[in-house]
Request: fold
Amino acid sequence: MAATGLLMLIDDITTLLDDIALMAKTAARQSTGMADDVVTMTKLATQKTAGVLGDDLALNAEQVSGVQSDRELAVVWAVAKGSLINKVILVPAALLISVFLPWAIVPLLMVGGAFLCYEGVEKIVHSWQKMQAKRAGKVAVQAAAPAAAATPQSLQALEKSKVSGAVRTDFILSAEIIAIALGTVSSEPLIEQAAVLSLVALLVTVVVYGIVALIVRLDDVGLALMARTSAAAKALGRGILQATPWLMRTLSIVGTAAMFLVGGSLLVHGMPFIEHPLEAALAAMAGWPAAGLWRFVLPQLVHVAVGALVGCVVLAVVNAVQRMRGKGAAAAH
Reply:
């Protein structure tokens, strides 16, 4: 009797183990299938964010330039860490908003777009003021100051300002990247959405800041090539050294334009009275000569125009508020 009971127990355990093995195989197949789906969706989401990635690269390369050469990589690393923190905040926030407040995504992106356009206009105004100062001869007074006036404290403050400004800009660009990636997987289960957004966030950060680090250290690459014995290497090194200042100036211009392109596109997406006529105009261009070119150029022009206009309005409001605060502080004293 006891032997029969023992045999039945062993048989039950064997059956249970078979069931567990079968469920494990099924779960493994499902996990493999889900992993394949996540990789495929991540690739698609990354492709859809390619345009913003170009703007992100140009903006960040321009933002971190201008610091001491021996601190450039440290600044890039600091901004990259800030970018990762941004994405650690943005990915869960995007998932929560998409579940509970999907209507808030567009307004939040519009606020970010307005901020980008404001920074773009402010940068142009600042550059114009510097040019006016040069023409007025005020630069001569500044040039008379000794170069040693740049104290470690002032250099540290400049570096801190560069990092904080780049991280703020990265937050808005990362928000758009995450929003675009979320749009490609919005119909998928939440766990797959989270996996895709996390992978996109990590890939974007590594790629963008890896290339930024390479760009800001191009001069070192040129010097290293010039130290070689090969005439070809020396010529390539000289070419890199001569091209680097032009590349940085170009990135500065492209970075400023990207503020209006990205910011303007975010704003237009939330303005149906502009977006719908624009879509109708693009559809009407289907039979035009060079229709593809026109359909690419027109949206960019509209985005830049809207971004510049909104940026000017925001700058005027900010300046007015600052003046009112200044008058209030003077009256209080």
User: Anything to note?
Assistant: The radius of gyration is 27 Å. DSSP finds eleven helices and no strands in the chain. The longest helix spans residues 2-48. The chain has one domain: 44-130+160-324.
